[in-house]
């Protein structure tokens, strides 16, 4: 379905349900994050992003890894076990420390059963949790019982994990599962 089919219309999602939408989205190549998965007609976006990173003199991919507490990659193969990706990085960059932030994000190999590679996941997590308590929706003027329907307010207070959201929206035995620290759902 072209993106224009989703603009201001969530009926494609509600027609198939959350489970089918997750399965369909995650099982197609368009959802894969990685080098070589950009359609030709939007390559200018990647080129502009790399140019912007250079103009802003962003730290390297390895510097960002160190910043978030990951070990620095010592070899191109530490970024990706895919020999084609590692060889292409070697052709462009003199050393693994020269790999640019934007390129490294997309070159990094995905983890098993993860939506995104490790560095992206860590950075999204840092951003999400650092912004959570400053979110305007949590303002005392907005986040209060009177703002929500009684059912919504109760649901908010019974939700403490992403698994809770999935459990409410996915039929039991549907094959969608989440792993939590305390149990497997």
Can you give a write-up of this model?
The chain is mostly helical and 185 residues long. The chain folds into two domains: 108 residues, no CATH class; 51 residues, no CATH class. The protein is built from ten helices and no strands. The longest helix is centred in the C-terminal third of the chain and has 15 residues. The C terminus is likely disordered.
Secondary-structure map:
Elements (H helix, E strand, L loop, with lengths): L10 H6 L1 H9 L16 H13 L5 H7 L8 H4 L3 H10 L8 H7 L10 H15 L17 H8 L4 H8 L16
Helix pairs in contact: 4-7
Keywords:
185 residues; mainly alpha; 2 domains; disordered C terminus
Tell me briefly what this model is.
The chain has helices at residues 11-16, 18-26, 43-55, 61-67, 76-79, 83-92, 101-107, 118-132, 150-157, 162-169. The chain is mainly α and 185 residues long. It is globular, with a radius of gyration of 20 Å.
Largest sheet: none
Can you count the helices? 10
Shape: globular
Give unreliable regions as ranges. 179-185
In total, the number of strands is 0
Judged by helices, strands and strand pairing, the structural class is mainly alpha
Rg over CA atoms, rounded to whole Å, is: 20 Å
Distance between the termini: 31 Å
**How many domains make up the 3D coordinates?**
2
How much helical structure, as a percent, in the residues?
A: 40-55%
């Amino acid at each position: 379905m072209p993106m224009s089919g989703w603009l201001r219309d969530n009926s494609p999602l509600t027609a198939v349900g959350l489970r089918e939408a997750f399965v369909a989205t995650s099982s197609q190549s368009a959802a894969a994050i990685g080098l070589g998965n950009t359609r030709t007609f939007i390559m200018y976006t990647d080129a502009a992003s790399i140019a912007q990173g250079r103009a802003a003199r962003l730290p390297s991919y390895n510097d960002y890894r160190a910043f978030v507490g990951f070990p620095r990659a010592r070899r191109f193969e530490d970024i990706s076990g895919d020999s084609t990706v590692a060889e292409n990085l070697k052709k462009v960059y003199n050393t693994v420390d020269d790999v640019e932030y934007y390129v490294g994000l997309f070159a990094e190999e995905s983890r098993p059963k993860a939506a995104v590679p490790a560095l992206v996941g860590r950075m999204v997590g840092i951003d999400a949790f650092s912004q959570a308590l400053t979110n305007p929706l949590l303002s005392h003027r907005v986040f209060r019982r009177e703002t929500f329907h009684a059912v919504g307010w109760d649901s908010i207070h019974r939700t403490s994990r992403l698994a809770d959201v999935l459990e409410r929206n996915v039929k039991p035995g549907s094959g969608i599962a989440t792993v939590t620290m305390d149990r497997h759902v």
